[in-house]
């Protein structure tokens, strides 16, 4: 959906400064030149990547936030993310890194790029059905790292990590893998400080009920407790109406949305349908007509690049907090 709404993004100077090049520190595992990382239940020994490839905005902007644009072989960026890329605070970094494909992540693209390392999520990049998995890449001598948020889908015995903690974990782990630990520590410290400020400013009383709407007419596609928007809403002082659903991004029935009686609807803006059309559908959808969100015209737009796990999550929470305050909640 080619959006017509410009979504302002609030980022501190210290976070934006990370796009200007990485602070490289020595390898931290003795003479071997490798670091050992726990990732989605696997213990992996990483040499420093020389030709890394990142998939989608979640991966790419974590790399950019750590100042690693000039060390990347390329990115795979679905065309639906293009409007969000143009709104990103790392627009110049996007221009400086080769886009290898505007489709989904594939083994062919990775091999053609002669990549030695791949960053993606499980079922959001890596895929059993499409034949590009960490184990398959291992067999080809290519290391990989999965977003901690997506470990939830990767194995039922894995500990569920709250989305923001998953983000911090990824930034710290990537800092170790790329030998930019000090930079990663600074980025994480800044994000945590801003998150703490948001929590301290939350108003007393019952949090407003927020429905996160990604897409879908027959059934809505939305965020459960294991995806970044749940933490964004919570930090902003609201409550995701599907917070009790132990899922990441998922489809639910409209009945559950109507029953929750949302007071605010947060609409995700990306490139396959104009966000105005999504809002118009929600306003005209009869089952939602009696909800406070529709009756009071309370729609808040969140950019796709801020809704996926990444360094823009806190800025998204700051914007939503401002919106909730503006409507008296």
TrEMBL record:
Sequence ranges assigned to domain Fe/B12 periplasmic-binding in this UniProt record: 51-329
Family per record: Belongs to the bacterial solute-binding protein 8 family.
Protein name: Iron complex transport system substrate-binding protein
Key word ATP-binding present: no
Pfam families assigned: Peripla_BP_2
PROSITE patterns: FE_B12_PBP (PS50983), PROKAR_LIPOPROTEIN (PS51257)
Keywords per UniProt: Signal
Organism annotation: Actinopolyspora xinjiangensis
Species classification: Bacteria, Bacillati, Actinomycetota, Actinomycetes, Actinopolysporales
Family annotation (SUPFAM superfamilies): Helical backbone' metal receptor
Signal peptide: 1-19
């Amino acid at each position: 959906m080619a959006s017509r709404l410009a979504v302002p993004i609030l980022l501190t100077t210290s976070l934006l400064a990370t796009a200007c090049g990485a602070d490289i520190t020595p390898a931290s595992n003795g003479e071997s030149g490798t670091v050992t990382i726990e990732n989605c239940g696997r213990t992996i020994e990483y040499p420093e990547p020389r030709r890394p490839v990142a998939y989608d905005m979640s991966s790419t902007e974590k790399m950019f936030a750590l100042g690693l644009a000039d060390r990347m072989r390329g990115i795979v960026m679905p065309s639906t993310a293009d409007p969000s890329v143009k709104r990103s605070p790392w627009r110049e970094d996007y221009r400086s890194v080769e886009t290898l494909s505007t489709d989904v992540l594939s083994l062919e693209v990775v091999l053609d790029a002669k990549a030695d390392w791949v960053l993606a999520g499980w079922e959001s990049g890596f895929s059993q059905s499409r034949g590009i998995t960490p184990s398959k890449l291992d067999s080809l001598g290519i290391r990989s790292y999965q977003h901690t948020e997506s470990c939830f889908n990767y194995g039922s015995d894995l500990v569920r990590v709250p989305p923001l903690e998953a983000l911090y974990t990824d930034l710290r782990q990537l800092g170790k893998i790329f030998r930019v630990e000090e930079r990663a520590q600074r980025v994480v410290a800044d994000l945590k400080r801003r998150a703490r400020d948001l929590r301290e400013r939350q108003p007393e009383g019952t949090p407003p009920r927020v429905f996160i709407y990604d897409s879908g007419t027959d059934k809505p596609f939305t965020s459960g407790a294991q995806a970044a928007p749940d933490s964004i809403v919570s930090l902003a002082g609201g409550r995701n109406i599907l917070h009790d659903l132990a899922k990441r991004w998922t489809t639910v029935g409209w009945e559950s949305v109507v029953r929750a009686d949302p007071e605010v609807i947060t609409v995700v803006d990306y490139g396959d349908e104009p966000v105005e059309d999504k809002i118009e559908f929600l306003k005209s959808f009869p089952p939602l007509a009696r909800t406070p969100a529709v009756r009071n015209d309370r729609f808040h737009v969140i950019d796709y690049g801020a809704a996926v796990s990444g360094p823009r999550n806190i800025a998204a929470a700051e914007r939503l907090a401002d919106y909730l305050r503006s409507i008296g909640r």
